[in-house]
Amino acid sequence: MPKDELKSEYRLIGTRPDRPDGLDKVTGRARYGADMSLPGMLHAAVVRSPHAHAKILKIDASAALALDGVKAVITRADFPTGLTGEDWNLQENSMAGEVALYDGHAVAAVAATSRLLAEDAAKLIKVEYEVLPHVIDVDDALRMDAPVIRAGVGDHTVPEGSPPNVSKKIEFGHGDLEAGFAAADLIREQTYKTEATHQGYIEPHACVAQLGSDGKGEMWVCTQGQWYIRRMCSAVLGLEASQLRVTPSEIGGGFGGKTIIFMEALPLALSRKAGGKPVKLVMSRSDVLRATGPTASASMDVKLGMTKDGKITAAHVNFRMQGGAFVGASPVGEALSCALACYDIPAVMHEGVEVLANRPKAAAYRAPGSPMAAFAVESLVDEMCHELGLDPLDVRLKNAVHEGVKASYGPTYARIGLVEVLEATKKHPNLLAPLGPNQGRGIASGFWFNHGGETSVSLAIGEDGTVTVSIGTPDIGGSRASMSLMVAETLGIAYEAVRVNIVETGALGVNEPSHGSRATFASGKAAVEAARSAIREMCRRAAKEWGIEEEAVEWKDGAAMPAGPNAGKFPPMTIAEIGAKMGGTGGPISGHHETNADGVGASFGTHVVDVEVDPETGRTTILRYLVVQDAGTAIHPAYVEGQYQGGAVQGIGWALNEEYVYGANGRLQNAVFLDYRIPVASDLPMIDTVIVEVPNPGHPYGVRGVGETGITPPLPAIANAVAMATGARLRSLPLSPPKVLAAIKAKKG
Amino acid sequence: MHYYKPQSFDEAVQIAASASGVTRFLAGGTDVLVQLRAGTVTPDHLIDLKLIPGVHDIARTEDGGWKIGIAVSGIDLGRHAELVAEWPGVVEGMSLVGSTQVQGRATLTGNLCNGSPAADSVPGLVTARATVTVVGPNGSREVAVEDIPAGPGRNVLQQGEIISAITLPPRGKNSGDAYLRFIPRTEMDIAVVGVAVSVTLDGDKIIAARVALGAVAPKVLVAADAAAALIGSTLDDAAIAALQAAVTAAAVPITDRRGTVEFRKDVVAVLAARAARIAYDRAKGAV
Ligand SMILES: Cc1cc2nc3c(=O)[nH]c(=O)nc-3n(C[C@H](O)[C@H](O)[C@H](O)COP(=O)(O)OP(=O)(O)OC[C@H]3O[C@@H](n4cnc5c(N)ncnc54)[C@H](O)[C@@H]3O)c2cc1C
To answer: Cβ of B268 under 8 Å from any chain A Cβ?
Structure first.
């Protein structure tokens, strides 16, 4: 799309230059987590529980330690005690204490001089278990007689007499629900279920860590957030945060799953025990699937009231989610808040519980909670539109939230772009494509809040007028390119004159990870402010040299110049000239900005999908797929489109085939990509995208953050399309061929 | 682990016959190396057969059939125009295996000997009445393809026995074959159900037929009743219905992470009808 289609008034923003990290990535020069090696480095292997729930009676590592080349074995006994809250959760998840809580839970780890030796040694560590009854399914976990994962997990929000695995209860809402339902012509209530899915990033977790007996440590690690790794590892191991220096590697995907620690504390603990030698740990794909963050599974009730002409009068949602065996890991709160966020409804009520189950500790996954909630609500909206003979896009427009409306989750919306998104969707040619037999079209909308958060950015002017930017949010989706564009735009210099580095924890103040779709928004906002502060200093230097007032100098096109005829007649002083002589004019010039970035703008999206379902096998083919989403401003449209497409593809996988398959023994049956079926390239059509731009007033260039919203509409959009294609409504994901075929057969009778 | 590169089948047989512990032969390695890395099978002896002269060749036999070397890759098979023209069903089974990368290595023999009930090339070989030459310490013998698998992950070969070639009989006139599998995605999946059908016609009438089923039993299943349902028919609706009933009755699938019993029994009937129609059209020269 040429720049002017987006009506950009900017010089660089909205263009599509090559990404600065592109050459490194296509030539293999980029260094990922497993690419680091250090002299004298040891390799680690982890012993994992084969049981979903088992008491650990005894761990005997003597045979492993007797092997030549085995340097250390650690168990929970090597960790400090007395942790509470999320710190305890992280420690318990890093290494099981008295009880292994899920298939794949780490119980011991070993460091040896080679990876093969470490793996052999791990097999020699004998663990005696007493197998306990387990529970996997979210609804089973909620039974009064379910196996108890941890007694007394419920906090103050959990009413007495609740099932023993309930850890948290949430309730909020506003408006008169009774009156709302009374005003409806049609009231429908249904239950929906979604399976846990994994982020499926291509790069498994990997790190090299070193920790001396002096408590000083270093880590090279694949992560979305180096400061989070630092804080969490320090807490779990009892270290002083500032003594641990964490450098993020290049990252092969995260989608939220690399915002917390899973195995990262283990090589540190092994290194400490092995006399401070560096230790490398690289997870296998099976370990990733068994023991790192999937998202939650959900069971959800939705009740909606609608008038004949499509006005939603009242909504009541009641969600149940399990996020593994740890309190607070499920995104039930976010799910509730997102559930009705697209709609302006006079009366809403949200209720939800989190329940523990013998599954791995859930991590964030792209708009955590929102896709499940959208599946439930957007499916029911679609069902009711069909029942009332209403156009699903018109109904969404009729009820769409806009600036000034009180959101279902409480606050009042600032400028948002849902109406613009729906209008752009209506105009798209995909809606006119004729549908053949066994084909169906599904429409759904979705929402994500987006996030600001703790942010610290530095920028330095080079001796030749080029610019280095130090950013604390790892580049998962092209953010180096976006930062370069924003900084170059602000400074009035070339895109190529800016180098953006993702830096280690010692180089900046604390930064939150690249999560919450915040990197381009928050680090971008801080980078622009840092550039502005460097501009002020450069103007000051020019003013000094010209002998005029600072206020009489302005910055334009990459140079300081007199601000009008009264300021005096001086030729522009370029950034290159200022950089060349800064040693003599007052020393190095840099800009810095840190903030708890506010002014976040929410992003809404609408997807339209056409499918064909084989009526004899239940297999769904995606024929056409359209993503329309509000980006605020698309800094680098190609990477905005990439985010839209990536979100859609992950949603397609979640909707159609991805699921955790557990055996009766509670073991994960499909811990390989062969059987954990994420979409392959040949499964997908080109994903069409439309970037809507309703600039966010809270960002200097209008950025909203685009990374997460794209995964929220696909689940219901595809279910709605399959319902239209087959006449059978499936309310439980995934829509795998056996399930769809069974539904088609049941309908035929 | 010991790794060998024998220069002849005699040498390979000798090494294999005297090896103790776990022995694996290396053809394409797309099963062996994956199992090694996953830690499921760590061979003590790995005997690479790719350097033996002739193992990469596809040659016409005297009677007009084909002799296929044990190291011929999926890609080379798929590029052999004459073979594709005569046995499209055999070739399409192999062509479905894996991805472009896997195709560059994977072989028919490896697919057969690995013993997966879902092996994609095996039903087509079975309906083609392909045989393999088994060489061993006691000399050599011809064995029908369907007699090689012994159950999931197992085959009937004894210690020291190696397959030295696969032989396809002469195709004969007015014949066609086809293989279809069901997977939830479009590639990189293991067959939930596989069906091969081969027919020979006299005019519009089927005078000979073979039907073989994959992934619905511990090993490839020769569905004789299903073939009988086709013979004598013109593939009319009644014959299709009888074929479908016969394959559903023959299938003894399990429920696992890839599919349920009910689903497999349904889909085997669907694929049998579709494969029969393709094979029939090919026999008529329509495709
Ligand atoms: C990513 C991926 C996707 C795949 N997809 C499919 C698929 O879609 N369908 C499918 O059916 N398979 C699939 N496979 C499995 C595999 O590629 C096939 O089974 C392939 O045909 C094996 O052939 P190979 O030459 O690589 O066998 P190898 O790995 O070399 O050998 C396999 C077995 O055969 C034995 N063997 C080999 N040669 C001989 C011989 N001459 N005599 C006796 N025994 C011998 C070996 O000892 C071993 O047990 C896939 C594998 C991968 C890695």
So the answer is: no
